[in-house]
Amino acid sequence: MIDPVTVAVIGSALKALIGESGDSLRRSSHSPIIREMLDYSCALFNAKGEAVAEDANIPALLGSMTYAMPHLLRENPPETIEPGDVFIGNDPYRGCTHTLDIHIFAPVFAEGRVVAWVGNLAHHNDIGGTNPGTEGFANRSIYEEGLRFPWVKLIEAGRESLALLRYFENNTRDPIASLGDLRAQIAAAKLGVRRMDDVIAKYGVATLEAAMAERLDQGERRLRKVFSDTPDGGGSAEGFLDNDGTGDAPVRIAVSVEVKGDELIVDFAGTDPQMAGGMNCSRTATLAAVIFAVKAAFDPASDQTAGSLRPIKIVLPERTAVNPAFPAAVSLRHLAAQRITDTIIRAVTQFKPDLAVAGSFVGFSSLAAECRHPRTGLPVVMADDLGGGMGGNALHDGLNAVDPYLGNVGLLPMEICERQYPIRIATTELVPDSGGAGERQGGLGIRRVYEFLDRCDVVFYTEQTKGEFAPWGAAGGAAGTPARLVLERANGEHVPITKNRLLVDAGDRLVTITAGGGGWGAPLARSLERVAQDVLEGKISPARAREAYGFEGAS
Amino acid sequence: MRRIGVDTGGTFTDCVLVDDEAGLLMVEKVPSQPASPDAAILTGMMRLIERAGLKPADVDAVMHGTTIATNVVIQETYAPAGVLATSGCRDVIEIGTQQRPQPYNLLHPPKPVLAPRNRRVEVRGRIAADGAEVEPLDEDAARVAIRELIAQGAASIAVTGLFSFVNPAHERRLAELVREETNDAYCIASSDVSREPREYPRFAATVVNAALAPLLDPYVRRLQQRLADSGFSAELYIIQSSGGLATALRSMGERAHNLVLSGPAAGIVGGVVTAAASGLRNLVTLDVGGTSADIGLVADGEPRLRFDMALPNGLPLHVANLEIETIGAGGGSIAWVDAGGALRVGPQSAGARPGPVCFGLGGAEPTVTDAQVVLRRLNPAGLLGGGLKLDRDKACEAVGVLAQRLGLGLEQAALGIVAVMEANMAGAILRSAARHGDNLREFTLVGAGGAGGLSAVALAATLQIPRVLIPPHPGLFSAAGLLSAELRHDLSSPLMIDPDDPDVAAITSVQSELEDRALRDLATDRIPAERRRCDHALDLRYFGQEYAVTVPTAPGERFAEVVRRFHEIHEKTYGHSAPGTRAEITAARIVGRSVADGRALPRATQTDSGSEGRRSVWFEETGGYADTPVVKRFSLRPGDSVAGPAIIEQIDTTTVVPPGWAAVVDERDCMIIEEVRP
């Protein structure tokens, strides 16, 4: 048996090399979605494809590559894999989350066989399909969602497949950024492989494999211990999407969560059938949402590996919004995934008293615009995603203006946007009175105004626009406000929108207002000094202070 | 020339006097006085002068490293700043990147906001990306806003506007209005702090400046005054985060935030100077203290410089600073076993109080220092020449508890604690080196701080760094850096130029304007003409990228050549390049510097009387306790060598030379430790 010191020392080396791989990917990528918004993830796997070290910036990507690897291995028998190969894949029906998340995997060879894999995934701005930015709430099938790579070799024994690259280049709306990002991904994976070669030279294959296996076991034991220490019990909750992307009827996410001995069971029985539109949550994306919620609710400080998945039993009814069947469209799975997470957290609050939190913004108000670069006229695709208020909790007010739960992408800087795209952002500000009242107030949402300076083909979308689905209050706290999008045409016409694809022209403006978080605890228990400070800062109006908190103002 | 270097640390203020003509180097250590750091400085300096038989007026220059800004930043005791923003900018510093520092924490603590919303006011006025005015500045509203900010308690005002790095007109006008409307409240515009795009980091740096300057400027002025009152006529220089010196005047106002890493920067420069004297130019500096380790990379004699950093609270800061990676790994780092049975070391630290278990001050958790005492690498009889007693039995007890949980023997657990901490350090060094594609096989590891010598050789072995250097006085590192640092000015100007079809005249005019500014500044700083030097560089990136690569350039160089080197550096740094793909030039940079006079520091003479002792020490390589020579550092003279296994002790540090390695003392009194080739 391997000793714990060697496991820790090798574990530290593996985490460092994966971190290094991530640094390289971020710094050399082209598109803002990777380098400004950090929508990428790197991981190291054992030969079976189980993640033993991860560098995830976006919680949504935590653990998700572990579900892609078995598909790669099934489609590529060991005898067909050679040193110097690099695989590409992005198919949601082959273990990926949606087509925009391009996965790159490279095998690490030693003693004539694969002993490990280095992988990364990065969100690309566009990969073809019906809509600019590929994502579409109204997509009817996966065939509208751009190129789908099965698990094929992008580089075969060191030789780049020019055919694949040129085909890829020819089918995306932003080829310069896409190819640049892909190159950055390949280089990051190759760097990881080189570093693994050093680790193997130092410790040998047998020790490395034993250390990787033990890291997985340690992760499993740790989480089992956490569940054992939690009294057996369970809770259930329902959450809703505003609609299915094509109609107006809400879509139900139902989940029950139960701690039983040293295991956790998450069951989605009662969830609505798969949607006609593009917000279905692909199986991998649902599993990643569960992993995030479990980690955040039970063991936030853990060092994530595939071993942490073993004590969790997940029941995903087939042909539902959380486990759709081919060829359902899934490009906007993030909207459903955020709601899934929010619903799991709500269920856990029913039996885990120290998870004393209210609901957070899950609307992910976004736009993707196909347009021309202001200086060169070349085609580019602009994308931006806005956060909102986080729920208040027993210890603190909810954070203002953040991308909650699975998100955590960065905001597109106003100065970067106007330099790269024909879009001027007029303001980015907090929305007063948007947070739910409570002893701990919900965080405030964001108001961002985009002014279009040229014709753009834009996909706009947001969730959580209905008051009844706004971020929920807890322990006596009130709900936050819902999200809202308004397109102000140059001719003065105001068009309220939620999910739309429209052509806009110079002079049109989009006003995006995101939701505030839910409040926690009885509003009247809030300290009047805090209320006074909020009024002073203009974060709540005097009217709100009076109505919600009984605050009459500084005398 | 007679110079005094003064480094204010958390515990001690180190003062070093150098008299080049007399070949004298003299040291004085006095306790720091956090409430009035200048008092300790004056005490130390006067003592030095007296001992050397000099008068204050005999000193030609005073070089100062200060942690005053670092402390404000760590303790968040900023001055109350206000923000005067133009259209759309009021909440930028509060919204930031919309990211959560702790993405898995659903009970998240609040994010820091330097200026609360009632001290932030927005007035109309907007500049476009190309510098055109989209919306004129509302000056009347601005006057009202300024008075409102003062009424809300703002002691200083940060002026922030979009695209001010292209056209600063609105910001400049607002700064004028602040001067008119207030009784000279401190005011700073974002375009004077940084010329880099991205509003959040630029505005955050501006607000940090506004919150620091009202505290730092009086300190610098007071220190100048006290020096003058005591009879010193020498110029006062302060070391900046960039590792360069600046006159006291240039350390204030719009540059106040440059002092945030003043203290640590001196340490890296000290490493460069010490190693350069020994002929070594590629360095990894490792400064290990009680709670953390500072790692710096020096390539070809130049410390790695970057133009942004993050403060401990996560705020970004645009400022030229030495790339120093700080990790929570030091002598006081606590070892623990998590619920899954994994051995972890740090980042929690026992600090100075209660300190490691072996200090006997109440510490109960086993630390790295306890492990080193168990292994007898640290002298169980005590440290600091007997000034600090150690209790090895207590250390064994604490490490023993951990050993039992891990199912290991006592010494295996102790070795494990050290190994895990060293693995964390090795990972941080690898990542630092990887940022620039550095090949560590071409580097020397410089071990400094109280605990650097314990781990330096083990790390070198792990990282395949062929050589370790231990300076004669690891504790005087910073002061030595101060005395040898260059005065420098880092200036830049944004550009947007296609290098395949370059507007040569435009670039040349920007470069010569920068050069004029740098030379003028150096002249004002009273640097003689023959010692002024300017180094030019251009920032390039692939079209569509947003992060640029800085490419050093020679005057009059062809752009095709610059572009060729850009591809080369991109390949080295990131592992890929795309020659033939369109690139663009995004900034011109210049470093104006005073060329050092090339004189090496005199040697501090010190000798240990003393015979060699022996004790039984556990090395990984010996697999058990081995009878090991314990050598007094200053019993070694240049040319002497010590073969491992050996322990080399001096008052402020202990150096481990494992079996298979040997230490040689060079002419500069540095210990060079290399693997013995069979």
UniProtKB/TrEMBL annotation, chain A:
It holds the Pfam family Hydantoinase_B. One of its GO terms (molecular function) is 5-oxoprolinase (ATP-hydrolyzing) activity. One of its GO terms (biological process) is glutathione metabolic process. One of its GO terms (cellular component) is cytosol. Residues 3-523 form the Hydantoinase B/oxoprolinase domain. PANTHER family: 5-OXOPROLINASE RELATED, HYPOTHETICAL 5-OXOPROLINASE (EUROFUNG)-RELATED. This is Hydantoinase B/oxoprolinase family protein. The lineage of its organism: Bacteria, Pseudomonadati, Pseudomonadota, Alphaproteobacteria, Hyphomicrobiales.
UniProtKB/TrEMBL annotation, chain B:
Residues 202-490 form the Hydantoinase A/oxoprolinase domain. Residues 505-669 form the Acetophenone carboxylase-like C-terminal domain. GO terms for biological process: glutathione metabolic process. Signal peptide: none annotated. SUPFAM superfamilies: Actin-like ATPase domain (SSF53067). GO terms for molecular function: 5-oxoprolinase (ATP-hydrolyzing) activity. Residues 3-181 form the Hydantoinase/oxoprolinase N-terminal domain. Pfam families: Hydant_A_C (PF19278), Hydant_A_N (PF05378), Hydantoinase_A (PF01968). One of its GO terms (cellular component) is cytosol. PANTHER family: 5-OXOPROLINASE RELATED, HYPOTHETICAL 5-OXOPROLINASE (EUROFUNG)-RELATED. This is Hydantoinase/oxoprolinase family protein.
